[in-house]
Automatic annotation (TrEMBL):
<feature type="binding site">
    <location>
        <position position="534"/>
    </location>
    <ligand>
        <name>ATP</name>
    </ligand>
</feature>
<protein>
    <recommendedName>
        <fullName>Phospholipid-transporting ATPase</fullName>
        <ecNumber>7.6.2.1</ecNumber>
    </recommendedName>
</protein>
<feature type="binding site">
    <location>
        <position position="389"/>
    </location>
    <ligand>
        <name>Mg(2+)</name>
    </ligand>
</feature>
<dbReference type="InterPro" id="IPR023214">
    <property type="entry name" value="HAD_sf"/>
</dbReference>
<dbReference type="GO" id="GO:0000287">
    <property type="term" value="F:magnesium ion binding"/>
</dbReference>
<feature type="binding site">
    <location>
        <position position="389"/>
    </location>
    <ligand>
        <name>ATP</name>
    </ligand>
</feature>
<feature type="binding site">
    <location>
        <position position="816"/>
    </location>
    <ligand>
        <name>ATP</name>
    </ligand>
</feature>
<dbReference type="Pfam" id="PF13246">
    <property type="entry name" value="Cation_ATPase"/>
</dbReference>
<feature type="binding site">
    <location>
        <position position="391"/>
    </location>
    <ligand>
        <name>Mg(2+)</name>
    </ligand>
</feature>
<keyword id="KW-0479">Metal-binding</keyword>
<feature type="binding site">
    <location>
        <position position="671"/>
    </location>
    <ligand>
        <name>ATP</name>
    </ligand>
</feature>
<dbReference type="GO" id="GO:0005802">
    <property type="term" value="C:trans-Golgi network"/>
</dbReference>
<feature type="transmembrane region" description="Helical">
    <location>
        <begin position="318"/>
        <end position="341"/>
    </location>
</feature>
<keyword id="KW-1278">Translocase</keyword>
<dbReference type="InterPro" id="IPR032631">
    <property type="entry name" value="P-type_ATPase_N"/>
</dbReference>
<dbReference type="Pfam" id="PF16209">
    <property type="entry name" value="PhoLip_ATPase_N"/>
</dbReference>
<dbReference type="InterPro" id="IPR044492">
    <property type="entry name" value="P_typ_ATPase_HD_dom"/>
</dbReference>
Length: 1184
């Protein structure tokens, strides 16, 4: 109960309490439970066995239509009012409620199953000095838990001790950020047991990168920061064991805090349907009121003639009152409950198409696409904005060493005998590294010339790879002789060190004072004198080493613009050639670094070291003094060359982005990566292009500067534009209670892009500047937000939703994307080797970003098109059906008599017209998937709501009104004073009812045929089958046998055989059908001839090109670039200090005893984590 109150933020007094500070004591459950902190159980389900039925029914009856049908059922239970049998409403209503209840129950059972699986995981908890195994759900704040290698982190833990030197642990953060890189976390310098320690820290929040608190132990106070916190969702790697103190549990953990608020997502068509249902209800009341007034007048004028036959005489007002409610029941078919049954079936069927689509199946991971919800399919056809994560979504987070430039010569290309470039693929012959026993077998390179010059002893080439083997912060691990595993803080470094390893310069081991390298088979140990660490300002890192011969050398790598400024003038010619190579590499989207070195005089080095020591121990301006010393020694460098590493995009990403852009979908990238990396990926994906007019960089540090940069960018794009935005205020929703503001799009000449960092975005998202941000961003073709927090991602999505009234989609793969995924109208999770948090919170999931174009351009567009056709046709046939009743009221004394047979009324929507319209809504397509990819512009009408809107609904009602006039008055005129061939009259009510209902069914069936673009065997079968069933049913129900069996239920004896054998009856059916269809055919002919839509044009082209041209073979486009380079290096500051301090060094575990007695772990033995390039097996070519 305490945990529940904690989750709700309540105390026993019932007042909401906001936690200001968390206070806990280690291993003191009694004290910690008194604070009523949340326990470690998580709950994502909505119902339990007791609340499911009432809560689900309550939710369903919140839907206006369901409440309306319940009201109708109550009316039908009143004999004086009821004009139709009760079962005509009960059966469909129960069917709808049961189907929805079954679907909701199934979804919630899956959530229960996931919760149970997580909550029942086992972990060892320290209780009274001994380790006991407990379930995750039973762990409390303040408990000390023990984690073992490859085990998930139970809760948000304060790291106390580990099996590693200096209490370091290695964790994988895939569940948090989608990255599979391994990070290092720090505990306290010396192991201790804080069994009586007290922690005071910040309250639960969603900041993944920030933690503040203090630990008080034995009178000493220790500061706590984010480096000492293990977050739930991480996995322990390469660490035998560790102990942690539970700080936040269950819903209070940062992982769950980032999951965002779960909202019930509804499509724009759903919201429109609610408004239309309310309007239809009002229209129904008006029709019933007109008929009730007519009944009152008729009873007053004509009813007195029949007073003698009535037991209580005539009371005109009371008769009108009863007639009003009788007509409410009769005319309820304007919103039949079968509409909602059909909608659920259509959505379910289109969801199955997504699940069954083999072209969205990823064989490498055996991962199919999955529609995790069935209620949002048509919304996929209306997306205007896509918000995408970068790492793990657009990229694979895998770096490969592709090319390099050494001493003015470029390596990595393959040329044929004519000097033409050879395209490389999986079948291209790879370099044989068998001569190197320590080579990584997964490393792939194709240019044999580089191996030849290395083995020949070329000094420049060997110096190049020697630099890569020495200048880094990578940690090696060698559990078996010759089996090296690299722990790289960034995949960039791992790729470069692995390349040096394969080309004969193998980084073998390191200590705080030395680096050991195997150079072409010879073991060489260098003395490490200094590490000049990387940071975002320096954009370079250097090491100073002493060779065994006593030679001092500084090796430096960094951004080419930074390195070139510090080169010796003698390198000018080499710099020009290398610059050409760098631009070529950048043009291919590769990430580049420049490499240089410098020999140092020993006497100068001694003097520099003394000054470095003084600067490093200074109390004031330490950073500035160190930067000045680094700047001094990193001058006069000699250029060696440059590297080109590919940040591997997922397959088909550039093509997918290009296709979506052609569909007028705007893509914004929201990433936590730094600016250079985000820009580089933008160019690789063709989101940023050289031909763009300008790419605006917004990186100011104050609110006013950010505003100025945004305004400057906007004025450049629209020099003649207005300073004030055009904001359209309106109301929407039921009863127009919801106020909306829409910022109008502004015309832009040219193509622009904007890159904004998280610090500037924080200012731009403030209330007084958010519209300025939105105006500027929406003018740009591409927007990239870098260094953003999960909360900022959600805020950007909410901003666009609020002021653009457009449908949004968010796609990501990590827990840091969950809030963005939940905030968008549609959330898509990328499943695979990364974390599953995004998938669990998403509406749709698949394994590769490229499948997004098929999800939207094919499944989404078809779903939207089918749903709109279904709604237009459904409203047409039901309004036509209802209007015939309305016209008949003027000829039956407004007596609430039905114009059709009661069985026809019952079966019209459930049998006669149900399956044909379902086949239309499940199988129809204007063009096939191939043409959908060829013309992405077909997607645009969905964004503009052209297929179904309030205007389309009004046209449908007018069309129904015309058809109902034809279907009532033509049969009425044809039957008036008509006789059979034998002279007998056939103007009875039953014959007229049969003719009218038959004409209605044939007319709506022809309309269905006109709306069908794609005929299948199922369409033919259901359409002709339904007509056949109708005639079979009427001949059966109107037979003598049925009349004699149940006389009161089947009164139309002999009507079918007496009427349908007359030629004038069939001619009347033909005439009504022609008159109903003729205006539709004429209008569509003129529209296609004079005002053709994009669909009409493409369908015409499809008819012209009967045979599909072969799918062109995809060749990666080689793009030219005028950018200086594609520099990007995802490295963080501070690892140089760790390397030189020795904290990273791996020692044998036996040197560190466990703090408490250990029991045998059931976990599998640890597998070493190492950097490697991953070459995917060949997949079938992507076919649209």
């Amino acid at each position: 109960m305490g945990s529940l109150l904690s989750q709700l933020g309540l105390e026993c007094g019932g007042k909401a309490v906001k936690e200001e500070e968390r206070h806990l004591r280690a291993n003191d459950r009694e004290l910690n439970l008194s604070y009523k902190y949340a326990d470690n159980a998580i709950k994502t389900s909505k119902y339990n066995i007791f609340t499911f039925l009432p809560l689900n029914l309550f939710e369903q009856f919140q839907r206006l239509a369901n409440a309306y049908f319940l009201f109708l059922l109550c009316l039908q239970s009143i004999p004086e009012v009821s004009s139709l049998p009760w079962y005509t409403t009960v059966v469909p209503l129960v069917l709808v409620l049961s189907m929805t209840m079954a679907k909701d129950g199934s979804d919630d059972m899956n959530r229960h199953r996931c919760d149970k699986q997580v909550n029942n995981r086992q972990v060892e908890v320290l209780v009274e000095g001994e380790l006991q195994s407990e379930k995750w759900m039973d762990v409390q704040v303040g408990d000390i838990v023990k984690l073992e290698n490859n085990q998930f982190v139970t809760a948000d833990l304060l790291l106390l001790s580990s099996s590693e030197p200096l209490n370091l642990v290695y964790i994988e953060t895939a569940e948090l950020d989608g990255c599979v890189s391994v990070c290092c976390m720090h505990a306290f310098p010396e192991p201790f047991c804080p069994c009586v320690g007290e922690v005071r820290c910040e309250p639960p929040n969603n900041r993944l990168d920030k933690f503040t608190g203090t630990l008080t132990l034995k009178g000493e106070t220790y500061s706590l920061d984010n480096e000492r916190i293990l977050l739930r969702g991480c996995t322990l790697r390469n660490t035998q064991w560790c102990f942690g103190l539970v700080v936040f549990g269950g819903p209070d953990t940062k992982l769950m805090q980032n999951c965002g608020r779960t909202t019930f997502k509804r499509t724009s068509i759903d919201r429109l349907m609610n408004v239309l249902v309310l309007s239809i209800f009002g229209f129904l009341m008006i029709m019933c009121l007109i008929l009730a007034i007519g009944n009152g007048i008729w009873e007053y004028q004509e009813g007195s003639k029949f007073a003698a036959f009535l037991p209580k005489g005539v009371n005109a007002p009371f008769s009108a009152f009863l007639t009003f409610w009788s007509y409410v029941i009769i005319l309820n078919t304007v919103v039949p409950i079968s509409l909602y049954v059909s909608v659920e079936i259509i959505r379910l069927g289109n969801s199955f198409y997504i699940n069954w689509d083999r072209k969205m199946y990823y064989p490498k991971n055996d991962t199919p696409a999955e529609a995790r919800t069935t209620t949002l399919n048509e919304e996929l056809g209306q997306i205007k904005y896509i918000f995408s994560d970068k790492t793990g979504t657009l990229t694979q987070n895998i770096m490969t060493f592709n090319k390099c430039s050494i001493n003015g010569k470029s390596y990595g290309e393959l040329l044929d005998f004519s000097g033409q470039r050879v395209e490389m693929n999986e079948k291209t012959e790879k370099v044989d590294f068998s001569w190197n026993n320590l080579a990584d077998p997964k490393f792939c390179f194709h240019d044999n010339s580089l191996v030849e010059v290395v083995r020949e002893g070329n000094p420049e080439v060997q110096a190049f790879f020697r630099l890569l083997a020495l200048c880094h912060t990578v940690m090696p691990e060698e559990k078996k002789e010759g089996e090296l595993y690299y722990q790289a803080q960034s995949p960039d470094e791992g790729a470069l060190v692995t390349a040096a390893r394969n080309f004969g310069f193998v980084f073998r081991s390191r200590t705080p004072e030395s680096i050991t390298v195997v150079e072409m088979g010879e073991l060489v140990t260098y003395e490490l004198l200094a590490v000049l660490d990387f940071n975002n300002v320096r954009k370079r890192m250097s090491v100073i080493v002493r060779s065994p011969e006593g030679k001092l050398t500084l090796y430096c790598k960094g951004a080419d613009t930074i390195i070139f400024e510090r080169l010796n003038p003698s390198c000018s010619n080499l710099t020009e050639v290398t610059t050409l190579h760098l631009n070529e590499f950048a043009g291919e989207g590769l990430r580049t670094l420049a490499l240089a070195y410098k020999d140092i005089d020993p006497e100068y080095m001694e003097d520099w070291k003394l000054r470095h020591h003084v600067a490093n121990t200074a109390m004031d301006e330490r950073e500035e003094k160190l930067d000045a010393l680094y700047e001094e020694i990193e001058k006069g460098l000699l250029l060696l060359g440059s590297t080109a590493v590919e940040d591997k995009l997922q397959d088909g990403v550039p093509q997918t982005i290009e296709q979506l852009s052609k569909a007028d979908i705007k893509i914004w990238v929201l990433t936590g990566d730094k600016q250079e990396t985000a820009e580089n990926i933008g160019y690789s994906c063709n989101m940023l292009r050289e031909e763009m007019n300008e790419v605006f960089i917004v990186s100011a540090n104050t609110a006013e500067e950010v505003r100025k940069e945004l305004q400057t960018a906007r004025r450049k794009m629209t020099p003649d534009g207005t300073e004030e935005p055009t904001v359209k205020k309106s109301r929407s929703g039921l009863f127009c209670l919801q106020k909306t503001e829409t910022v109008a799009d502004e015309p832009v000449n040219g193509e622009y892009a904007m890159v904004i960092n998280g610090h500037s975005l924080a200012f731009a998202l403030e209330k007084d500047m958010e519209i300025e941000l939105l105006r500027t961003a929406c003018m740009c073709q591409t927007v990239i937000c870098c260094r953003v927090t999960p909360l900022q991602k959600a805020q950007v999505v909410e901003l666009v939703k609020k002021y653009k009234q457009a449908v949004t989609l968010a796609i990501g793969d990590g827990a840091n994307d969950v809030s963005m995924i939940k905030a968008a109208h549609i959330g898509v999770g990328i499943s695979g080797q990364e974390g599953m948090q995004a998938v669990l919170s998403s509406d749709y999931s698949f394994a590769q970003f490229r499948y997004l174009q098929r999800l939207l351009l094919v499944h989404g567009r078809w779903s939207y098109l089918r749903m709109c056709k279904f709604l237009r046709y459904f409203f047409y046939k039901n309004f036509t059906f209802t209007f015939v009743h309305f016209w008949y009221g003027f000829f039956c004394g407004f007596s609430a008599q039905t114009v059709f047979d009661e069985w026809f009324i019952t079966l019209f929507n459930l049998v006669y017209t149900a399956l044909p319209v379902l086949s239309l809504s499940l199988f129809d397509q204007d063009v096939n998937d191939w043409w959908s990819f060829q013309y992405p512009q077909l997607y645009t009408p969905g964004q503009l709501n052209q297929y179904f809107s309030k205007r389309a609904f009004v046209y449908t009602v007018l069309h129904s009104g015309y058809s109902s006039l034809v279907l009532f008055f033509i049969p009425w005129a044809a039957m008036y004073d008509t006789v059979r061939d034998d002279g007998k009259e056939i103007v009875d009510y039953q014959s007229f009812a049969l003719l009218a209902q038959t004409c209605l069914l044939i007319a709506v069936s022809i309309q269905l045929g006109l709306d069908t673009h794609y005929w299948t065997a199922m369409n033919q079968f259901f359409l002709w089958g339904s007509l056949s069933v109708y005639f079979a049913v009427i001949f059966t129900m109107y037979s003598n046998g049925m009349f004699l069996t149940l006389t009161s239920s089947f009164p139309f004896i002999g009507t079918a055989r007496n009427s349908l054998n007359q030629p004038n009856v069939w001619l009347t059916m033909l005439l009504t059908s022609v008159l109903c269809v003729l205006p539709v055919v004429a209008y569509r002919f003129l529209r296609i001839l004079l005002w053709p839509t994009i669909n009409d044009k493409v369908r015409y082209k499809v008819r012209q090109d009967k045979v599909l041209p072969p799918t062109p073979r995809r060749v990666q486009a080689r793009r030219t670039s005028t950018r200086r380079s594609g520099y990007a290096f995802s490295h963080a500051q501070g690892y140089g200090d760790l390397v030189t301090s020795g904290k990273f060094l791996r020692r044998t575990p036996k040197s560190r005893p466990a703090l408490f007695s250990q029991t045998d772990s059931p976990l599998a033995q640890t597998q070493p984590q190492f950097y490697r390039t991953i070459s995917e097996r060949e997949e079938p070519p992507l076919s649209p």
